[in-house]
Amino acid sequence: MEGYADNSKCILDYLALFQALSAQDVDEGLCRRQWQAILTREQASGEARLAPPFLRLQFRLVDRDFLLAMAALAMELDGGLRSAFRRRYALALPTIEYGLQLISPICPSGCETLAELAGENGLCGLLLAPAEPAAYSLERPLILCRTILAFLTGLAMAEIPGCTPLMEHPEPWLPLYAEEFKQVQDWYLQGTGNVLYLCAPPGSGRKTLLRRVCGTVVYADVRDLSDRSLFEQEHTLREAAALATLLGAPICAAPDSAKTAFRSLERLCRRYHIPLAVLAETDQELAGAKEVLRLPRQREGVTAVFHGPSGTGKTMAACAIAHRLGMPLLRADLSRIMDKYVGETEKHLGRLFRSARENHCVLLFDEADALFGKRAQISTGHDKYANLSTSYLLQEIEQYDGIAILSTNLLGSFDDAFLRRLHYIVCFSLPDAALRETLWRQALPPERCAEELPYAKLAQAALSPARILAAVRGAVVDILGAGREKVDAASVVNALRLELEKSNKALPKCLAESGRGERGGEYVCS
């Protein structure tokens, strides 16, 4: 039998199975054949990623619990099934008891079912949405939690407040903790609900280390749950546990002050064999810890300034550095940092540096001379408070233990105190003629041109890489507007002339002397 090509067809067959099971006169033989056909097609699907069998495997579900989960999915997706159930039973929500009746033709329940479902098994503990305690366990609503519903239907990952998947960290990474890497790896390979305490200051790279070792990590913000009811806490923590089981990932969390939500999470992870990494900061948070790994604080930050004319690649270089290190780039938006009200600029800067530390970012201040400018002689109240902001920034940049890059066109405008604290000052100069010719050839290779371009003559115009690209873009727009597909020399020279006029410059003499000819308006090279 041919396998499934995609997940949607597999889900449609499950819906058809439960439509047959919910009929007034159930054909039990037909339902059993449908069930066996689905299993056979799943096995024959090869590398196709099908959600139902993957769910069954990850949660180690027996037939009964798996079919109950698929019954909950069918009731969620098929309005006809919901309407038929409500007409027949006069209830708003399907229950586990109804699910057992529904699947009985293909999976009869034994006398031990009640006891098993009353306990914390995988179905009731993780797959189904939490419910208020009921006197009769089979009266519990048969409703999938949001994480499982999103996974089975192929929708985007459900957004659960306080639960964030930290996806696999890209290669390469900054090897801050080479020795500790092996210890975390040994802990992760043990699995079975082990708890590891990672003790280090905020922003020291604990989550980055976990992502590098484990691939994907589920972050549960239990501190954000402390103000919520116990029922809401349970709901979020179970969603986090379900997501971690689906992804085959550990959970990481920082203990809340009262440790109520954290203890609930710890019990949940031990019950369902989910590794838990605890992000501790102080020795007081290590009470009861059996396995502790202390990460050394990385005290030495790196601060550099990239200076040079506009368009020479300063910001691009910062992006390349962040990509090479496998770290996110946090770009400071000066329009949102600088504030006319006293004290607000410092608050914005404090939040910026705190976010950069916590998320282990490369911090970029573009057009940094606006923030790091020289302190003025105090003649007005405005000067006094502006100098306070500069002093605060000086203190923060000195204490920052990450990577900070400042880009500017005006290095001479920097306060001397900042310059003394910079580890590197890198000058981005305009490219010379040979490099400009290379840039022209890369931007307009021969296969994109209708004729041989005078690359060497084009390179005589002293332009930055960004302005060369702008001229190329202008030439391309010109020829596309004329209905042509390939660039000719005339359009390139004209675009270069327009670009030079922006700064009141003329074409190089070698290009100006050989302009448009009389023969059909074509460019003629002398």
Q: Could you walk me through the main structural features you see in this protein, from its secondary elements to its overall organization?
A:
This protein is an alpha/beta fold. It has 23 helices and 11 strands. The protein has helices spanning 7-21, 28-43, 51-58, 63-77, 79-89, 96-103, 113-118, 122-127, 146-153, 178-190, 206-214, 230-247, 260-271, 314-325, 334-337, 344-359, 381-399, 416-421, 433-443, 455-458, 465-481, 489-501, 509-512, and strands spanning 163-166, 195-199, 217-220, 251-253, 276-280, 292-294, 302-307, 329-332, 362-365, 403-408, 424-427. The strands form 2 sheets. Strands 1-3-4-5-2-6 form a 6-stranded mixed sheet, with helices on both faces. A 5-stranded parallel sheet has the order 8-9-10-7-11, with helices on both faces. Helix 12 packs parallel to helix 13 and helix 16 packs parallel to helix 17 (381-399). The chain starts with 6 loop residues before the first helix and ends in a 14-residue tail after the last helix.
Could you name the key traits of this structure?
526 residues; alpha/beta; six-stranded mixed β-sheet; five-stranded parallel β-sheet; disordered C terminus
- Please give the order of strands in the largest beta sheet: 1-3-4-5-2-6
Mean pLDDT: 83
What portion of residues is helical? Answer: 40-55%
- Structural class of the secondary elements? alpha/beta
- Work out the number of β strands: 11
| Assembly type | single chain
Question: What Rg is obtained from the alpha carbons, in whole angstroms?
Answer: 32 Å
